[in-house]
């Protein structure tokens, strides 16, 4: 007869252990989904990881189907369950069911839950391919007028023309700071300047250049396009010149003959286009890529279709503009409130700006055709641009239904012309409806990168208009925001998202580290560089280079450029007086990102979120990279469960620091010794101690 004690021992020995929740994992990376971007009709295998021997059964839940998963592999203390299903022609979602004993839980993109929410399911988008070259690519944004003046002969001249009621001007000195009203002040940056600096960019580690607009435009920002069909000769080539300037007090362009010749003469336009084609040849010869800015929501009042300034009127090869002539072929490219010709100023302006006429797609199939032709032209020979960045893309039409249909057509046209061309959009808020197939590849990642990272590391929102001290160092809020905002993305679109610390629309991140609230017009330009904290800047770069997505620099960040929100953030690149220490740090951080393939498309997992600290990992079967950050003013010790990256917990594993920063400076991998390496304990835990305002990146292969 079996005793009660023997029965108890047998029960304990055979009882399945409690679910080790931290071991359960799956995501949308290639390691857990094959093929990662399936076509309709293909069989796709999905995988789920659990602790070894820790569950009874697992099922894949697809719609109403409950598909059994089989134990396919056991290694390093983990079980890997998998199953396959045929991908249909529509967007599909799935999540996992886990059964252990009498307990049933579900695993979604946000983790384990007792009650799965459809919006948190994994997503399968048939036939939706994000070009592989974009995933994790190091990008560099260039605001053309402020990067490098390589050809002074094409510079905008003082009093060349009038813009918004005043003559334009040329900055007397490259290092002059932007003025409060800066849109009509020019420094002379151009394509020749970028061409001369390609060695610099390659040495920095840049793989992709994203240009703010390059097309003919009267402003230095060029978001008010004058001619979509040509590169602006002021950043290209001027071969035919001459004509009068305007008076110093002029408010209109009645005498702006010099500008008319420069921007409408075919010889200048064609020469500028040829320069751009040669530039693209050199870019591709170097193995680099270029994304250009497409501003298709609105154009400019100088635009040849409207021609409010009269630059095209009566010139050979140009039709009458809609501002002057009701019979213009472009009449319906714009929405006019009144039948009031000539000089009809009642056209709809974007946000009411008369310098930014809104394009009227719903009223003109010819406009649609014209824009599609432009979209195809620049991604085709002889230019072969590698993609479009789309300005205010969700504002395009007068309804969301139209916007979706437009971008579906746009993507088809672009990808038929260039199958590897990227369609990347500017968008604030939830972009999920545009990222579910056939429209955008990805977006500028404000919601799931720039915003939460800025608040976590600086407590400042991205314009420096507001301070949020309660969010400074709040790692739980940071991780949760990143997680839930990230639900808008599929795996491929997340790993391709443009992850920026700042750009032409927001204050420079380095300025945000000083916690000054306001703008240059109130605080003064000097305040942007006061009390800045380089250790915090380095923390941001280290996180940028190890977070899922395409780390994107705004020109000059690597050289220490500061600035409040535009126009102050559009200062010139400081050639000859860069911050050399910061530049070296950027170069090393980018090399780290490019040298560890796991940072391109590896899985992501949170490891620790104590107050004022954060730790996370990127991992696959070959590599593990750990990033640890202490935002506080006191030393902090982290106990990190690095076994969660898939390594055997009962074995000793060595992690080597590959980049470290603190309040005293930086340590690079080349300066590290074996004594700096850290090893896990028998439970797969790694102990990391950081000083104040410090960060470290650890790697294991």
Which key terms come to mind for this protein?
701 residues, 33 strands
Question: What are the SSEs and their pairings?
Answer:
Layout: H1 4-14, E1 33-34, E2 43-51, E3 57-62, E4 65-68, E5 70-75, E6 78-86, E7 92-100, E8 103-108, E9 111-113, E10 122-124, E11 139-142, E12 162-163, E13 166-167, E14 169-170, E15 185-186, H2 191-196, H3 198-204, E16 208-211, E17 215-216, E18 227-231, H4 257-264, H5 266-285, E19 289-294, H6 365-379, E20 387-390, H7 400-417, E21 422-425, E22 442-443, H8 446-458, H9 475-485, H10 491-494, E23 498-500, H11 509-512, H12 520-523, H13 534-544, E24 550-554, H14 580-595, H15 598-601, E25 603-608, E26 613-619, E27 624-630, E28 636-640, E29 654-662, E30 665-668, E31 678-679, E32 686-690, E33 694-700
Parallel strand pairs: 11-16, 11-24, 14-15, 16-19, 19-20, 20-21, 21-22, 23-24
Antiparallel strand pairs: 1-2, 2-6, 3-4, 3-7, 5-6, 7-8, 7-10, 8-9, 12-13, 17-18, 25-26, 26-27, 27-33, 28-32, 29-30, 29-31, 29-33
Helix pairs in contact: 6-7, 8-9, 13-14
């Amino acid at each position: 007869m079996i005793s009660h004690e023997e029965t108890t021992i047998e029960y304990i020995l055979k009882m399945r252990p409690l679910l080790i929740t931290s071991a359960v994992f799956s995501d949308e990376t290639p390691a857990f989904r094959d093929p990662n971007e399936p076509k309709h009709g293909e069989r796709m295998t999905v995988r789920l990881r659990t602790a070894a021997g820790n569950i009874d059964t697992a099922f894949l839940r697809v719609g109403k189907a409950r598909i059994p998963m089989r134990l396919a592999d056991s290694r390093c203390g983990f079980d890997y369950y998998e199953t396959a299903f045929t991908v249909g022609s529509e967007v599909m979602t799935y999540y996992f069911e886990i059964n252990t004993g009498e307990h049933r839980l579900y695993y979604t993109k946000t983790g384990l839950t007792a009650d799965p929410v459809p919006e948190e399911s994994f997503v399968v988008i048939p036939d939706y391919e994000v070009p592989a070259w974009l995933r994790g690519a190091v990008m560099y944004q260039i605001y053309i007028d402020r990067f490098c003046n390589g050809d002074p002969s094409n510079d905008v001249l003082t009093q060349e023309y009038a813009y918004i009621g005043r003559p334009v001007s040329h900055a007397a000195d490259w290092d002059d700071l932007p003025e409060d009203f800066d849109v009509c002040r020019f420094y002379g940056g151009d394509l020749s300047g970028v061409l001369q600096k390609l060695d610099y960019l390659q040495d920095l580690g840049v793989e992709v250049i994203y240009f703010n607009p390059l097309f003919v435009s009267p402003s230095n920002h060029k978001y008010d396009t004058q001619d979509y069909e040509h590169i602006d000769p002021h950043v290209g080539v001027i071969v035919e010149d001459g004509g009068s300037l305007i008076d110093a007090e002029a408010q209109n362009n009645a005498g702006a003959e010099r500008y008319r010749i420069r921007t409408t003469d075919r010889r200048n336009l064609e020469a500028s286009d040829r320069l751009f084609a040669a530039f693209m040849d050199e870019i591709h010869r170097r193995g680099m890529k270029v994304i250009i800015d497409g501003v298709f929501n609105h154009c400019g009042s100088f635009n040849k279709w409207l021609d409010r300034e009269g630059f095209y009127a009566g010139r050979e090869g140009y039709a009458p503009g809609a501002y002057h002539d009701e019979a213009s072929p472009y009449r319906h490219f714009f929405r006019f409130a009144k039948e009031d010709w000539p000089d009809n100023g009642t056209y709809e302006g974007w946000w009411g700006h008369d310098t930014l006429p809104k394009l009227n797609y719903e009223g003109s199939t010819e406009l649609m055709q014209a824009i599609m032709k432009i979209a195809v032209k620049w991604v085709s020979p002889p230019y072969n641009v590698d993609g479009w960045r789309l300005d205010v893309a969700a504002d395009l039409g007068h309804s969301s239904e139209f916007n979706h249909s437009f971008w579906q057509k746009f993507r088809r046209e672009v990808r038929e012309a260039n199958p590897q061309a990227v369609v990347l959009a500017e968008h604030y808020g939830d972009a999920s409806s545009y990222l579910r197939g056939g429209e955008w590849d990805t977006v500028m990642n404000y919601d799931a990168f720039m915003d939460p990272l800025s608040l976590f590391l600086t407590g400042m929102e991205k314009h420096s208009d507001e301070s949020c001290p309660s969010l400074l160092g709040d790692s739980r809020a940071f991780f949760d925001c990143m997680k839930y905002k990230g639900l808008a993305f599929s795996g491929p679109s997340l790993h391709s998202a443009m992850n920026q610390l700042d750009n032409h629309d927001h204050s420079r991140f380095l300025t945000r580290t000083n916690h000054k609230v306001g703008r240059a017009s109130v605080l003064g330009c000097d305040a942007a560089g006061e009390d800045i904290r380089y250790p915090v800047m380095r923390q941001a770069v280290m996180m940028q280079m190890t977070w899922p997505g395409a780390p994107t620099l705004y020109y000059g960040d690597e050289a220490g450029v500061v600035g409040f929100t535009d126009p102050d953030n559009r200062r010139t690149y400081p050639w000859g007086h860069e911050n050399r220490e910061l530049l070296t740090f950027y170069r090393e951080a980018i090399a780290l990102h490019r040298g560890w393939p796991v940072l391109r498309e590896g899985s992501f997992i949170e490891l620790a979120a104590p107050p004022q600290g954060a730790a996370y990992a990127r991992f696959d079967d070959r590599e593990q990279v750990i990033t640890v950050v202490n935002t506080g003013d006191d030393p902090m010790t982290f106990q990190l469960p690095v076994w969660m990256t898939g390594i055997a917990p009962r074995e000793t594993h060595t992690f080597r620091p590959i980049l470290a920063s603190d309040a005293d400076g930086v340590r690079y991998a080349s300066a590290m010794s074996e004594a700096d390496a850290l090893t896990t304990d028998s439970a797969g835990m790694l102990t990391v101690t950081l000083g104040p305002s410090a960060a470290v990146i650890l790697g294991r292969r």
